[in-house]
Amino acid sequence: MFKKMLSFIIFFTSFQSHAIAVSSLFESADPDTHSADVIIANNDGKDMFINLEMAKVEYIDGKKVVTKVSRESLKDWTFSISPSQLILKDGEKKAIRLHNNCEKYNCKLDKDQVYAVDVTPVPYTDGKISAVAVSFGYRVYFMDPATDVKLKYDIKRVNDKEFKFSNQSNTMLNAVINTCSKNFSDDCIYQYKLLSGSEKTFSLPEEVINKSSIILNIINSNEVINEQVSI
Q: Which class does domain 9-144 fall in?
């Protein structure tokens, strides 16, 4: 049940007048290939040049640090995108592959490796990229999960309307509150995801604010961890 809900899938959703759409804003790597595919679609009405930029994301001492790739550091990175840029005609869609080339250390990951890809469309006319008009883009996250989970977290209620979630594990955790009375749907499943090393105070769903005890399921990306806690 939760496997489908774990992904931040927004399949070909565009907001307002976005020039492009992406199949997912978050992808967890396949454990065998350490890769994932994201589809980009052009629905703008004109050709688009799609620029892709990479960054590494991590939490150091509780603070989010985003390090963009440079020409000098590229050779030391294991993460790659293929293709690194593309041109989409109006109505066209193509897949890009996100890959963690971790073979040099046998893909034994002591913690999650998280990367971001900034997807930026630029109008492309008569074989030329516009130097002025830059359309709204997306940031897509890619995570290659830790090989062995070292679970450590703290979750507690702050007040009637909020709870604090702290993740000291070596992998991303997802706290899930199920308020569904009969059938499961996105409208009654609430997810609170935290990357390794981060903490945050979240607002509780209105449906459970007045309850003296709330049940949450704590799960990781591949559901090896799935435990129930009460706050």
A: mainly beta
Q: Domain extents for the chain?
A: 9-144, 153-230
Kindly report the CATH class assigned to 153-230.
mainly beta
Indicate yes or no: pTM above 0.90. Answer: no
DSSP the chain: -HHHHHS---TTB--TT-SEEES-SEEEPPTTT-EEEEEEEE-SSS-EEEEEEEEEEEEETTEEEEEE--TTTGGG--EEEESSEEEE-TT-EEEEEEEE--GGGTT--SS-EEEEEEEEEEEEETTEE-SS-----EEEEEEE--SS----EEEEE-SSSEEEEEE-SSS-EEEEEE--SSS--TTTEEEEEE-TT-EEEEEPPGGGTT-S--EEEEE-TTSS-EEEEE-
Predicted confidence (pLDDT) per residue in 98-110, tens digit? 999 988 778 889 9
